[in-house]
Amino acid sequence: MSGPPAGGDDATLRGDPYGGALYGGGQAGESAPGGVPVPRDPVPPPWADQSPVQWEPRPEHTLHMAPGEERTTHLSPEPWAAEPWSEPAIWQPPAPPKRSMLPYFLGAAGVVLLLGVALGIVFWPSGSSTSPPAASEPSTGQSPSAASASPASSGDLEAQAGAVNDLLEEMGGTRSELGSVVTQGCPVSGVQRVLDSRRGELEKARALDVSALDNGAEMKAALVRALEASTESNQRYLDGAPGCPSDSEVADVNQRASSAKSEFIGYWNPVAQKAGLPARTEGDI
After folding, report:
1. What span, in angstroms and rounded, lies between the C-alpha atoms of 30 and 62?
2. Residue 159 lies inside a defined structural domain of this protein
3. Residue range of the domain that includes 185
4. Which of 59, 72, 252, 275 is the least buried, fewest Cβ under 10 Å from its Cβ?
5. What is the count of structural domains for the chain?
6. What integer pLDDT is reported at residue 92 of this predicted model?
7. Using CA atoms, how far apart are residues 283 and 285, in angstroms rounded to an integer?
8. What long-range pairs does 53-60 form, CB within 8 A, spacing at least 24?
9. Is the distance from CB of 226 to CB of 174 less than 8 angstroms?
């Protein structure tokens, strides 16, 4: 076998297969301890000679740009940047609603109402408070209706007796007017006026309240009968007007009127005396 080329050594074997030194910066054969070679310069790749353009550094376009061509974009400031105190407030949970006092008031009112009802039930008087009826007095000849009438106050007696007395005054005036009409020959207008007055007095007599007067019911009935008879008599006068009827034509009705008036006077005068009013006669009414 032939040996290594003349003048060669181990450095030739460790040289770059492409003709360069594998390890730069030192003499061939230099190595680190342990026999590991130490590189000195970067070793280009095998294809460095084939495509050298790939190893050219990428151009920096901003290095040669004119200062005037730079573009800067400014962001708009926040709404509260100028006024720090106007910075939006941090959200806080809403305050809990206030409790209404109305239910408490209604409850208290209900308790008071129930208490009042309970007290009313407890203290409500039991039984009837009406006093027992008084013993009946001995009969004095009065009718049962008069005896059963309850005693009235003096105020009621005076008021009711005064109403009867006013009606008697009105009846006396109509009687006087009838005498004037008869004197004039009983003209139709005069008789009609007297008849209208009698009818009005009859309605007033029927509406009288005599509950506070002694024998009030009997007295009122007699007065009503007297006015009914007088009204019938005045109607006969009107039927024959103009001109007055004869005494015989009105004798029966005038007799009924006189009897009723006499009965009324018998009841009225004691009442008038008690009430301080004037006594009457048959001719007055």
Report:
1. 45
2. yes
3. 154-275
4. 72
5. 1
6. 72
7. 6
8. none
9. no
> Measured between alpha carbons, how far is residue 234 from residues 172, 199, 228, 263 in Å?
15, 10, 10, 21
Q: Which tokens belong to 100?
A: 């209404």
Helical H segments across the chain, by residue range: 10-13, 102-123, 144-148, 154-183, 188-206, 216-240, 251-275
Please give the pLDDT value at position 72: 67
* pLDDT higher than 80, residue 18: no
> Rounded to whole angstroms, what are the CA distances from 134 to 96, 137, 140, 145, 213?
75, 9, 17, 17, 20
Residue with tokens 């376009």: 61
Residue 170 has a CB neighbour count (10 Å cut-off) of: 14
Arithmetic mean of pLDDT, 184-208 = 96
- Is the pLDDT confidence value at 141 over 70? no
Asked whether the CA dihedral 62, 66, 69, 71 is positive or negative, the reply is: positive
- How much is the pLDDT for 119? 76
Q: Decide: 174 and 232 in contact? Cβ < 8 Å.
A: no
Return the axis-axis angle of helices 154-183 and 188-206, rounded to nearest 10°: 170
Do the domain assignments include residue 160? yes
Query: Would you place residue 284 in the very low, low, confident or very high pLDDT band (cuts 50, 70, 90)?
Result: confident
Answer yes or no: are the C-beta atoms of 212 and 153 closer than 8 Å: yes
Find where tokens 């139709």 sit.
188
Would you state the pLDDT for residue 250?
A: 93
Question: Residue 239 maps to which CATH number?
Answer: 1.20.120
Query: Quick one: DSSP state of residue 223?
Result: H
Helix 188-206 and helix 216-240: axis angle, to 10°? 160
| CA–CA dist 46, 155 (Å, integer) | 151
Over 80: is that where the pLDDT of 76 sits? Answer: no
Amino acid (one-letter) located at 285: I
Domain membership of residue 87 (yes or no) is no
